[in-house]
Amino acid sequence: MSRLTINGKTINAPVGATLVDAALQGGVVLPQDCCTGQCGTCRVDVISGAVDAAGTAERNSVLACQARLQGDAEIHFDPVPLVMKTGGIVTSVRDLAGEIVEVVVEVTKPVPYLPGQYVKVEFAGFPARDYSPTLTLDGLREINQLIFHIRRIDDGIVSAALGSGIVPGSKVKVRGPFGHAFLRQGEGRIVLISTGTGFAPSWSIAVAARLGQPYRPLVMIASARDPRNLYMRPALDWLTKQGVNDIVLTASGANPLPPARHGRATDFLPTLSPADTVFACGSPEMIEEVKRRALTAGAAFYANPFLPSSGELPLGMKIKRFFTGAPKKTSPVHAQLDALAAQIGNSKS
Length: 349
Ligand SMILES: Cc1cc2nc3c(=O)[nH]c(=O)nc-3n(C[C@H](O)[C@H](O)[C@H](O)COP(=O)(O)OP(=O)(O)OC[C@H]3O[C@@H](n4cnc5c(N)ncnc54)[C@H](O)[C@@H]3O)c2cc1C
Ligand code: FES
Fold this sequence. Notes:
This protein is of the alpha/beta class. The protein has 6 helices and 17 strands. Among the domains are: about 80 residues, Ubiquitin-like (UB roll); about 100 residues, Beta Barrel (Elongation Factor Tu (Ef-tu), domain 3); about 35 residues, no CATH class. A 6-stranded antiparallel β-sheet has the order 9-8-11-6-7-10. The termini are far apart. The C terminus is likely disordered. It binds flavin-adenine dinucleotide and FE2/S2 (inorganic) cluster. Flavin-adenine dinucleotide (FAD) binds next to strand 9 and strand 10.
């Protein structure tokens, strides 16, 4: 057994256990979601001691669901709101621009979350998906509302149903919050870089930072591949009125209308320093590039990667999609669907 100190509380814990399991055995629940090293929710700082990072080290932090205790150690995590469940109802589904839709959900119980965190949303009849609650493009939100910016993906099980199967009046279940890429108190410049609807958590952080920590300089880089998806223009006007001048709006796929520029988000990342705090939200490829540059510069780095879901489909939906004919897909979810269809097909013949 070794001694593991978590946020000042010391427990006995077995050598070789992951930090999540070791903490749990001592009655401490570390923030966590996927427990597979994907979501980053469980990232903790190692203050001292013997921890095998299992390849997840970033500066002095590790993923607690992967890293293993090798001896006595001390770790710290920033407190986050407790994970809760609530129900709700969709009150508005509104096209913002291009493929981007704003969805407003009125929840029965307010969901406390930190700017940048995400929640699991299950629209009735559809599988759960992760979405990042944010604000309207003029920076507003009621306490009992969750506002989402969602990109409609043509063959997306959930996003393609926005406005058809998911409409005002649809019931919703929400669980959360999760995630490690949230705004903390601090000094120094905040650099926000996003692709597509990665702007949702970015915008949530930007507004909270301007209102709560106005002394911190802020850089906002928002991008999309297709210029028609640059839905965030009104939000950037709000930031300009708040005195933020370092704003870049960019599209990589085609020339956008000025003042938006042509290029990838990372083309406009400023030179970083150890005083900076960088948040990268959206495409995993962009995040990898920003992470490399932030860590090389010694900047604090937080990532909010929009990884495709690999979750189970509700049974009703599997059956419905089998009989209505699901389009050809390549994701793990769709591989499961194909396997199920093959199974049913075999048992029929
Ligand atoms: C932490 C987190 C926060 C997120 N926040 C948001 C958010 O605020 N707004 C938002 O629009 N999305 C967000 N996402 C993505 C979201 O969870 C879904 O993956 C997305 O809406 C697609 O779901 P779907 O059911 O429509 O597509 P699926 O049926 O799951 O997938 C359809 C096809 O699209 C591909 N695909 C799925 N997701 C993506 C993606 N993000 N980029 C490119 N291709 C994809 C799949 O591989 C598949 O081929 C977030 C993801 C994570 C992990
Ligand atoms: S819980 Fe550890 S990475 Fe998701």
